[in-house]
Amino acid sequence: MATQIPKQIFKTLLSLTFFVLVLSDTVSTARKSIDLKKPCKHFVFHLHNIAYDSDNADNATSATIVNPIGLGNFNFGKFVVFDNPVTMDENYLSEPVARAQGFFFYNKKTTYNTWMTFTLLFNSTQHKGTMTIIDANPMLEPTRDLSIVGGTGDFFMTRGIVTFTTDTFEGSKYFRIKLDIKLYECY
Q: What are phi and psi of 151, to 5 degrees?
């Protein structure tokens, strides 16, 4: 009886080890390899933002819902929601290929920096679905990389990077951002 207990423990451990090896092999073969040098999809779009300022309700695409609370000179605490058109070119009047809907807030007291989350909603003959973007946006940098963390429709479970470059900035009224989108996981 005493010799059977170590044999059963050995058999149990051997079975468990075999199960873990089979499971890990299954998981590793199911995973796609990602080539970070070559995205599976690449797009360039332009996001247009017109801030609401009490006299442009018809044209405004964003609105401040919480004003800065006076902690420094960099809008710390300001919270903005937006529903911005996204076009293929730099012209605001071009037909939108998507809408950028979400929010951002200023989260740094020593420089202009926002944290933002938004969804690009595509509903055209070319693309249907969404891409979800969440990340910090250090606004004074010439280019900023934000994470694409998922999507639906044509962009189901996609992941990648969107590089922001500010094309035009007209005070607090209007800005245009070039969106250079590189997707590295496409299904």
A: -175, 180
